[in-house]
Amino acid sequence: MEPDDDPSPYALGEGLPEERTELAWSRSGLALLACFALLARRVWERHQGTVAVVAVLLLAVGALAWAGGILHARSARLDPDRQRPASATKLRNAALGTAVLAAAGLVLSFFPAD
Amino acid sequence: VTRAADEGTSADDQQEAGEREREPDVRFTYANERTFLAWNRTALALVATGVAATALLPRFDFEGARRLIGVPLMLLGGLLALSSYQQWQRNQRAMRRGQPLPPSRMPLVLAIGIGAVALLSVLVVIISGGAN
Lengths: 114, 132
Known about the structure:
The structure holds two protein chains of two kinds. Chain A is an all-alpha fold.
């Protein structure tokens, strides 16, 4: 289907798919923040030493892995003439970021504070 | 011009498919991306719930009870996050080749996982003599 032949109201160039996609990234960023905050609070209140260092590192890696995708969606939205879905690498990093947060949670559960 | 994900296809796949592969309508690529993100939010919610279960619930009568509820949730979240990327890749490849979208096992995994954890939670509450 060529975009030019498409009579649908969701025509390209209006930026609606970009907008929906950026909103999806924003919602995901909020979910990330909530998850991050819970984990960070847990480290802060109960942990110290090696476990805390490992957990903080995992949290930082997990959040940074998401940053690329979120920033990309933002710039793609502000530039609606060029359709720019996120690259496979950015999506892979985001997925890995989520998995790393899960790993941080597991570390904190299996090495509880004394 | 779409710069979608070339990495979804291996060199072998590309040789095999040759000229038949073309980038799908960018709206479909965006829709695939949003589906991926929705799964990741689900995964993040599962991880957050798992952390909350191990950290915020009051102690039960036996050791490791909260972990019994929280750890499977975190594992499920991690698993779904990784699967969501795999599924995105498969969808993207199918769309590029004009094939039907591949079936996904993720909804089933999620439903069984949540059901199992719910059951486990009930057992933990019963074994520990009721939630005080």
